[in-house]
Design a protein that fits this description.
single chain; 474 residues; alpha+beta; four-stranded antiparallel beta sheet; 10 helices; elongated
């Protein structure tokens, strides 16, 4: 016994959809030119110890990278409340929904309907009138596209690649946020330590001003010394206000990143000279960047999506097969709708072939090809930029330590000069100008040391992000 036409039509739809999904016009993706060397090489002579290629900073959790308990709590707050990260999470959900929409087109959709109508008709306008009732129920497949040339599959593949790109983008956003919070936190620490140094220096210079005034009263110096001391104190007072403003702005920037007010029970911070950050990081191999940096993985998935768009644009030149199938019943009343011979069915295949589109399809294909070419260039540029960031970070790691040691010696020398100049000035052996120069030199040397320590920390944070670390540990 042969199956009824409706069953044969449904079986045909499912068979065609299964057999023709394998057809695809997505081109083979050209291999981007990464241009990465086999090993990282120090860019400077005498750049320190050999670079460790057995591991990578990507394996370090951010709690290991930043042992400061106060900073750890701030990063946790930012991961929970930062608005940019929440937007990135919503973008992932949007791309996932788009992929679900694109994937649903690969399977038939069933729709059920139930309707009733009552109509008055007239066979003879003068003598005869009548009223007719109609009830219907139907279950059908509406305009299902059999993917003959892979258009629907290519669109689904492109949507899936963009969803994966958004997932990697979320990881990149987490890493960027962690790095931004750390940088803002240490900018606050720098501003606070600069403020403290300025306050101590101002107090020292005020004492020096009092000494100059006493010596003037004792007629052991001139009014020029007093004027120089007063100018020095005024300069320090102006610098103090600048440091206070910088500290307030640094705190505002940190509060913006965390997305919520700082709780009062935060642990005390570590000083910049207490090594609150790991500054020597294992770099791993250059090729590992392609697997560890989420921004590079995001660029790769965007490239795959652009390549799949070419397949969809190519398939648009070929015929499209749409199938519509409905099975139901029609009866004058609901009571007899499913009784007797009231069944109906309809099977409507439709083939459309573009003939004249005024060049639109060719332009869409050309646009898809250009977008893929641009995605290849973006991917190659992202790789080269990532490699440069790592090389710059390694160069900093190799030189900041020695520079800080030299600056510490400079500070010690400047402090000895300041102390000796103060003693000699009190004894009347040196002029006020010599003491003034020694005091300014000592103050400037200490400020430079603080800046160097902040730059070393910033370099370490940048290298950590460049190596793909920081996004996985909660």
């Amino acid at each position: 016994m042969r199956p009824p036409p409706t069953r044969r039509a449904a079986a045909t739809i499912l068979l065609l959809s299964q057999l023709l999904w394998g057809c695809s016009l997505i081109p083979e993706l050209p291999q981007p030119q990464a241009g990465l060397p086999a090993q990282y090489r120090p860019a400077l002579p005498g750049a320190g110890t050999p670079i460790d290629s057995s591991s990578s900073a990507a394996a370090l959790g951010w709690r290991q990278m930043f042992p400061d308990p106060r900073l750890q709590q701030l990063i946790t707050l930012a991961l929970e409340h930062n608005h940019d990260l929440r937007l990135a999470l919503l973008q992932v959900a949007q791309f996932q929904a788009q992929y679900d929409i694109a994937g649903s087109a690969r399977l038939p959709s069933l729709e059920a309907g139930l309707s009733a109508s009552r109509q008055r008709s007239s066979a003879d306008a003068e003598t005869k009138t009548g009223i007719s009732d109609s009830r219907s129920a139907a279950l059908g497949i509406t305009a299902f596209e059999v993917d003959l040339f892979g258009r629907v599959g290519a669109l689904s593949e492109a949507a899936f690649a963009r969803y994966l790109a958004s997932e990697h983008g979320l990881r990149a956003a987490r890493i960027s946020l962690i790095g931004a919070v750390a940088e803002a936190y240490f900018a606050e620490r720098l501003a606070e330590e600069q403020l403290r140094l300025t306050e101590l220096t101002l107090e020292d210079w005020r004492q020096s001003l009092e000494l100059a005034r006493k010596l003037k009263l004792a007629q052991q110096n001139s009014g020029l010394d007093v004027a120089q001391a007063e100018g020095q104190v005024a300069t320090a007072e102006a610098d103090l206000e600048s440091r206070r403003r910088a500290l307030a702005q640094a705190r505002h920037g940190l509060a913006l990143l965390t997305g919520t007010p700082q709780p009062p029970e935060l642990p005390p911070p570590l000083a910049l000279d207490a090594r609150p950050v790991l500054t020597q990081l294992p770099a791993g191999l250059p090729s590992s960047l392609l697997l560890q940096r989420p921004d590079l993985l995001q660029a790769e998935q965007s490239l795959l999506a652009a390549n799949a768009d070419i397949g969809a644009a190519r398939a648009a030149f070929f015929p499209r097969l749409l199938l519509t199938l409905s099975v139901g019943a029609i009866s004058p009343s609901f009571g007899s709708l499913f009784q007797g011979d009231h069944r109906t069915w309809a099977f409507t295949p439709q083939i459309t072939q573009p003939i004249f589109t005024a060049g639109r399809l060719r332009a869409e294909l050309r646009l898809a090809e250009l977008r893929r070419t641009a995605a290849v260039v973006e991917y190659e540029r992202a790789i080269q930029g990532a490699f440069r960031e790592v090389q710059d970070g390694l160069a900093g790691s190799a030189t900041f330590g020695r520079q800080i040691e030299a600056q510490e010696k400079t500070v010690a020398s400047a402090e000895r000069r300041r102390e000796l100049s103060t003693l000699r000035y009190r004894a009347g052996l040196d002029s006020r100008l010599e003491l003034l120069d020694a005091q300014r030199q000592a103050y400037g040397a200490r400020l430079a040391l603080l800046e160097l320590r902040r730059e070393e920390i910033r370099n370490a944070i940048g290298l950590y992000k460049a190596l793909g670390g920081g996004g996985e540990q909660d």
